[in-house]
Amino acid sequence: MAGKEGRPSKYEPRFCEKVDEYLSECKDIEDENKLRVNLPTVEGFALFIGIPKRTLYDWREVHEPFSHSLEKIVEEQRKRLLNMGLSGDYNSTIAKLILSSNHGMSDKTDLTSDGKELKSIVYLPAKKDE
User: Fold this and answer.
1) Are residues 39 and 85 in contact, defined by beta-carbon separation less than 8 angstroms?
2) CB neighbours of 26 closer than 8 A, spacing ≥ 6?
3) What is the pLDDT of residues 16-73, one digit of tens each?
4) Distance CA 54, CA 32 (A)
5) How far apart are CA 101 and CA 79, in angstroms?
6) Tell me, what's the pLDDT at 2?
7) Model confidence pLDDT, tens digit, residues 100-127
8) What are the helix (H) ranges across 38-125?
């Protein structure tokens, strides 16, 4: 049985703990009446540990504990965007954009068709009796 070719993985279980360290350092800073946002991202975590982001996504597929750790980053980002966007501390347009593209949220609601195509109904005027 042939093994997978290439370099051995640099994955270490300690990277799960590094997620918590990254999140503790990823805080917004109030600077001269201006908020400097330091939103946690998976890409930011990749830079934090010096690994390409593609590698993190590969590890997520193979190492379940690491997958759960990366999910902490995603959930912290979602929570902060919601709370700080609603409070006005974050730019609401940018918060909305990230929430819709990264977290599956949308301001569009379809209450009539449940996402299915509606068939058109055509009403014709009644014939007049001659």
Assistant:
1) no
2) 38, 39, 40, 44, 76
3) 999 999 999 999 999 888 899 999 999 999 999 999 999 999 999 999 999 999 999 9
4) 37
5) 15
6) 47
7) 988 888 876 666 666 677 676 766 677 7
8) 42-49, 53-62, 64-87, 92-102
pLDDT on residue 117:
72
Q: How many beta carbons lie within 10 A of that of residue 46, not counting itself? A: 17
In this predicted structure, the answer to whether residue 86 has a pLDDT above a threshold of 50 is yes
CA-wise closest residue to 23 among 62, 71, 58, 94: 71
Residue 114 vs residues 79, 101, 103: alpha-carbon distances, Å: 27, 21, 20
For CA atoms 6, 64, 22, 71, the dihedral sign is positive
Q: What are residue 109's phi and psi, to 5 degrees?
A: -125, 130
